[in-house]
Amino acid sequence: MAVFPLAKLGTLVIKQVSKPLASIAKNRAKNSHFFRTYVLMPPAQFYHWCEVRMKMYVMNLGRTGQSSTIPRLSEEAAIELGANLLGEGVIFGIAVAILAYEVSRQKEKEKKKEEAEQAFINNLETRINELTFSSEELDTKVRELTRLSYALQSQLKTKEAKTSPSSNRKSAEVLRSNSQIGSSSGAIIAALIDARSRIIEEIPRSTFPG
């Protein structure tokens, strides 16, 4: 909605700036023969010729094959028109330069944004790979402790089966010691499983920035 008022304001600024440029060109043309003859008048005469020729073409004049002569502008009129064309040309050049600068700035901004996003993605992938490796390492340790726990329980059952009734007291002490060892290994396994769960929960949390 605010584009049209800004466009009108920009057009008004261009018109106001072109007036002093045209005045400077006129004063320069009065004082400089070279500027008047080779800078202002040739573009003005060419513009006048194109404009008249286009009007004659639209009005269906000059199509009979007879070459019609287009009168040249007077020196004052050519200087006036050339000064106006020069002012508008300068303003157009400034507008093109500003537009080119803005386009280049936007491209540079987008490039920096893409580089930052790519760096974040690379960092995120590295972190996910590290967490995955830690999770696999914990899985290996949990499986090893589980295997040792089953082996220890099997040994306890074997010793219990071979123990005679006369050594019940000694076997009870061995069982209590082995049960303590088993509870310790169970606590270690539980701690490793809990750590693995935390690592797995950490991976989706770091997928997107906060």
Describe this structure in words.
By secondary structure, this protein is mainly alpha-helical. The chain folds into 2 domains: 117 residues, no CATH class; 83 residues. 86% of the residues lie in helices and 0% in strands. The protein has 4 helices and no strands. α1 packs across α2 and α2 packs across α3. The longest helix is centred in the middle third of the chain and has 88 residues. It is rod-shaped. The two termini are 34 Å apart. 7% of the residues are buried. The C terminus is likely disordered.
- What proportion of the residues form beta strands (DSSP E)? under 5%
Helix amount, in percent? over 70%
- Shape assignment: rod-shaped
Largest sheet, in brief, is: none
- Mean pLDDT equals 75
Radius of gyration: 46 Å
Total discrete domains: 2
**What is the number of E strands?**
0
SS field, number of helical segments: 4
Residue stretches low in confidence (pLDDT < 50, at least 5 long) are 205-210
Briefly note the structural class of the backbone.
mainly alpha
What is the rounded distance between the termini?
A: 34 Å
Helix and strand run? HHHH
